[in-house]
Amino acid sequence: MAKGKGGFIGQDGLNAPDSPTSASASGGNTQATVSFTAPSDVGGSAITGYRAQSNDGIGASGSSSPITVTGLTNGTSYTFNVWAINAFGYSAPSDTTNSVTPALLQRALFAGGSSNIIDYVDITTAGNATDFGDLIASDRFLGGFGSATRGIFSGGDNTNRIQYVTIATTGNATDFGDMSYTPDNTAEMGCSNSTRGLTGGGYNGAWQNNIDYVTIATTGNGTDFGNLTNGRYGVSALASPTRGVWCGGETSSGFSNILDYVTISSTGNASDFGDLTNVRRDSASLSSSTRGVIGGSYTSPGSAPYYQNLDYITIASTGNASDFGDATTAFTAGMGTSGSTKGLFALGFTGSTVNTIDQITIASTGNASDFGDLTSARSSGTATSSYHGGLQ
């Protein structure tokens, strides 16, 4: 629709509607939502629709408020005007909205942990978590991963169930399919890039070295990917867009400091990456596109005290982990995930089950600080986000 100096071509000042009022905009991922109040004077005939348009000409039409304008560029600032439409043409434009800058949603989800609870937080803003919805059933020891739009929770207590949610909305999880193996009741963990999610490890009468994968955008059962270098449980996992890394765990020989890696886009067995600074079981991991951070653990042989130190690795290379700093307290059975620059650890168990969430800046080193609290204390759950290291 062409736009002239006085509004859209075809405007009839006598019979067109009055302008919409109270126009405002909020940003999303490559989009903005424009809200407004319909005019009380509809002109010579009923209003048939509305048009919201940005300052650079990208727009969308709708029958009522709000209107979502898509096709915007993340990181670019936009303002909007809204027009009311009837059979006689277009109103004059509304007042210009506030300026918004679309950006990828940075939402973290924390799921399960002897419960069916799913919580969420905005990673960019410290504060307490909000209820998102429920898992299909109460679960511990799940593998969590996802894309920018979909969060997936795989396995759990004596189940090979895979379930998913849409991250930008809230609501209960839906069945996705089944894993190709059942990890039983001892943790396996997951990681992903934007297209493929992997889970690995577990215990089912024996220490398992299985790695499973799914295509995140579809639903369906898991497929065999290959094997870890050692069968083990209580592992954690992290990823860049190209590489997945599994960290620590307990093998048939005891607690381990093993780091394994795979190339996510291919299939095949894992290769040795290096070693953690100490043996870890039931740790939590998170990453940016370049760096992984691993925190928390039982100390061998699985009793208090727990680990407070955080390790880090450079994902694109191989080699041993280095000291990053310390969590706010020693913990185990936590949950880890990240945004563009910030990492979050829900601490899980510190001698008792807690709801504490720590935050770190992934690109630097140093001690964690308090971020906020989960809606309830729990441990041995899992986490993912809409902007973790595998998506950057």
Description:
It contains no helices and 36 strands. It is mainly beta and 392 residues long. The protein has 2 domains: 3-90, Immunoglobulin-like, CATH 2.60.40; 107-391, Kelch-type beta propeller (Neuraminidase, 6 Propeller), CATH 2.120.10. It is elongated, with a radius of gyration of 24 Å. The two termini are 36 Å apart. Mean pLDDT is 93; it is low at 1-9.
Keywords for this entry:
392 residues; Immunoglobulin-like; Neuraminidase; four-stranded antiparallel sheet; 36 strands; 0% helix; elongated
Please sum up the structure shown.
It contains no helices and 36 strands. The chain is an all-beta fold and 392 residues long. It folds into two domains: 3-90, Immunoglobulins (Immunoglobulin-like, Sandwich), CATH 2.60.40.10; 107-391, Neuraminidase (6 Propeller).
Map the helices and strands.
Blueprint (H helix, E strand, L loop, with lengths): L2 E2 L2 E2 L12 E7 L3 E7 L11 E6 L4 E4 L4 E4 L9 E7 L2 E2 L16 E5 L3 E8 L7 E10 L3 E4 L3 E5 L6 E6 L7 E5 L10 E4 L3 E5 L9 E6 L7 E5 L8 E4 L3 E5 L2 E2 L2 E2 L2 E6 L7 E5 L8 E4 L3 E5 L2 E2 L3 E12 L7 E10 L3 E4 L3 E5 L9 E6 L7 E5 L8 E4 L7
Antiparallel strand pairs: 1-2, 3-4, 4-7, 5-6, 5-8, 8-9, 10-11, 10-36, 11-12, 13-14, 14-15, 15-16, 17-18, 18-19, 19-20, 21-22, 22-25, 23-24, 25-26, 27-28, 28-30, 29-30, 30-31, 32-33, 33-34, 34-35
